[in-house]
Write a structure and sequence with these properties.
660 residues; alpha+beta; 2 domains; 8-stranded antiparallel β-sheet; 29% helix; UCP014753; DUF2264_C; DUF2264_N
């Protein structure tokens, strides 16, 4: 049975675009911008894309729809192209900043969402001021300056948000507005430098902030630093060179960690609704390091192993993936949906409006380079072979990244969001995060099927009515290339977890070792239920119906689910995932779980191999040891995976001794 595919003119044009050249990418961006026209207000200042709510007002949400596409539009113009709908944004800038206009965006208050949107506008003025600013009336220029400058005396969150004010003032200074506050900009930059922790990485806030996610790299901080290094070279050369050096250092880990062989980046952290902005780092790197219009004496040499062809490949493969392989990312009219691979509100944060996904337009910064630039004239190259089958320890992020065996993923401990964020246990607390299999989020709080419990040890203390997963870790640290952490699902339950990365001998397996202790001091006799999940995977068969159990033994390589004793496995057209119990004395039972729909970010219908067990021993250590397998079929041989499955990973000696 073949699934019937619904198409639309937008999807047909996207699919037919090879996305190999600057003109191809410009055409795809134009297609996205054209789709917004029918959703744009009469004077252009607001773009209304839906009715779902956020913690901020609807006017700010419509401002998001207006401002975020500007990342692409301004870059398109800077690189020498034109856009027939440019007047919509010119008119919108004038109307939205005019207090007397019906489409006025509203004055900014402390910690206002409007501040976020100032970044795109500031960038646009910096790179495309002659086109966007110069034709405006003196009154419009005054209004825009007053509106952007209105944030200079307001309180801002002590996070990457400070970059938004930097770019507002940078843009105003580039167009000669008297409202540019360069002292404020320098103070913000000096404070943002206190977030830097080394090796190219910056926290998203002051000391005590522990998450290092895409905001620290491709969504915000690294991209902002790279753009600043290009645009402020004459005014601030020393800081600009420091920012370029940070990018050079970050590349050493970023190339493996957040890029991969399968075109999709590793899914980790919040705001994944921004989609192809995950490769914006490469776009900004190309813009910042291009020597064609660089300053005299600036070192624009690319860090090893990068070449212009490698950067081009990393960036364009990601854009092609979203344009060609993820039709659910856009609705039939070409509007980005709220979700990831498909519309999915379970993923969203409280700040995601219908216009939020257009942060993805940061990926189009590469269009700011002209057709004859080093980036666009280079022959696209594949992923550097020197980075294949590598494993890297990330001391700042407390993560270990790997692409051994062709599966790109990371093991993680010690990261958590510093403030409440929806589904934070899923976005930061899982044990592993994959580029091929993504991660899952809960859709409700009762059954295991609702939990989205992939790559985690789920704990229930109430007879399996509700489940808890790792959210806050304590004492997280690296022990060589192993990650060790302590966490407490309940006050009287202590869990110590070691994550052991794959080896060349067993490249598709990683190990998890858990020490659980139930304290009896409270006087209760708690019974713990556990469910440990491997990766989640596409859960449908060739006939698009739910996978059946395979009829053969464990050696059956056919499509379907398998569970027996302490083993569970799922095989589908997406690959093979599974989990084996290697615990020294505890017995757990394998199960192939059909997850509730729309838990997984990549597969709306997913299956999950789990190991389940129950324990009631108190004041003694319970040891659980799990071996987890994952092979995406787009990088693996469908016929030979059983050989890898039959290998047993070796538990490190020092952990074996502890479990005795």
């Amino acid at each position: 049975m073949t699934a019937f595919t619904f198409s639309s003119p937008f999807h047909e044009q996207a699919l037919s675009n090879p996305l190999r050249s600057r003109s191809d990418v410009a055409a795809f961006l134009t297609l996205m911008l054209d789709a917004l026209e029918s959703h744009t207000s009469a004077n252009g200042a607001r773009i209304h894309l839906g009715y779902t709510g956020t913690h901020f007002d609807d006017v700010a949400a419509q401002l998001e729809g207006f401002s975020r596409p500007i990342w692409g539009l301004a870059s398109l113009i800077r690189g020498g192209s034109s856009y027939r709908g440019l007047s919509r944004w010119q008119s919108g800038l004038a109307a939205g900043s005019d207090p007397a206009n019906d489409e006025f965006w509203g004055y900014m208050r402390d910690k206002d969402q409007r501040m976020v949107e100032c970044s795109a506008i500031g960038y646009a003025l910096s790179v495309s001021g002659h086109t966007l600013w110069d034709p405006l009336s003196d009154r419009a220029k005054r209004d825009i300056g007053n509106w952007l400058g209105g944030m200079n005396d307001k309180e801002m969150p002590n996070t990457n948000w400070l970059w938004f004010r930097v770019f507002a003032n940078l843009g105003l200074s580039k167009v000669g507005s008297p409202r540019a506050d360069l002292k404020r900009m320098k103070a913000d930059l000096n404070h943002l430098d206190t977030f830097y922790i080394g090796d190219g990485w910056s926290r998203d806030g002051p000391e005590g902030i522990v998450q290092l996610d895409y905001y620290s790299s491709s969504f915000a901080i690294q991209v902002a630093q790279l753009l600043y290094s290009k645009l402020a070279q004459k005014e601030d050369p020393e800081r600009c060179e420091e920012f370029r050096n940070r990018a050079r250092m970050l590349v050493k880990s970023y190339t493996v960690d957040l890029a991969n062989l399968t075109r999709r980046a590793i899914l980790f952290g919040r705001s994944l609704v921004y989609r192809f902005a995950m490769s914006a780092f490469w776009s900004a790197l190309a813009f910042a390091f291009d020597p064609s219009d660089g300053a005299f004496g600036v070192d624009y040499s690319l860090p090893v192993p990068l070449t212009w062809g490698v950067i081009k490949g990393l960036q364009l493969r990601n854009i092609r993936h979203w344009a060609h392989n993820q039709p659910g990312a856009f609705d039939r009219s070409g509007i980005l949906t709220l979700g990831f691979s498909y519309p999915n509100h379970n993923l969203l944060e409280n700040y995601n409006s219908p216009g939020s996904p257009y942060w993805a337009c940061k990926a189009f910064i590469c269009l700011a380079l002209p057709e004859n630039s080093a980036f666009w004239t280079a022959e696209e190259e594949g992923y550097p072979t020197s980075l294949n089958n590598t494993l890297r320890v990330m001391k700042h992020a407390l993560q270990v990244t790997t692409n051994l065996g062709g599966h790109t993923y990371l093991l993680s401990s010690g990261q958590q969001c510093s403030y409440p964020v929806k589904q934070s246990a899923a976005k930061y607390g899982k044990l592993a995060y994959s580029a091929a299999f993504g991660y899952s989020v809960p859709v409700a709080s009762l059954t295991l099927e609702e939990l989205g419990g992939d790559s985690t040890l789920a704990i229930s203390g109430d007879g399996q009515e509700t489940w808890k997963c790792r959210r806050v870790t304590e004492e997280a640290r690296l022990e060589g290339d192993m990650l060790r952490s302590m966490w407490f699902p309940f006050p009287d339950v202590e869990i110590e977890t070691w994550l052991v990365p794959p080896t060349l001998a067993t490249p598709l397996w990683h190990l998890r070792v858990h020490r659980i202790r139930i304290q009896s001091g409270s006087g209760s006799r708690r019974v713990l239920s556990t469910a440990e999940g491997s990766w989640a995977i596409y859960g449908q068969g060739q006939d698009e119906r739910a996978l059946d159990a395979v009829r053969g033994q464990e050696e059956d390589t056919g499509e379907g689910t398998f569970s027996s004793g302490g083993v569970a496995r799922v095989t589908s057209r997406a690959g093979v995932v599974g989990i084996k119990d290697l615990s020294p004395s505890v017995i757990r039972k394998g199960q192939a779980l059909r997850m509730d729909a729309n838990t997984n970010l990549i597969f709306p219908r997913a299956a999950l191999p789990v190991l389940r067990g129950s324990f009631e021993e108190h004041d003694k250590d319970i040891w659980l040891v799990s071996a987890v397998f994952g092979l995406p079929f787009n990088v693996g041989d469908k016929k030979s995976w059983l050989e890898e499955w039959n290998k047993t990973p070796v538990i490190p000696v020092k952990l074996v001794e502890r479990t005795k």
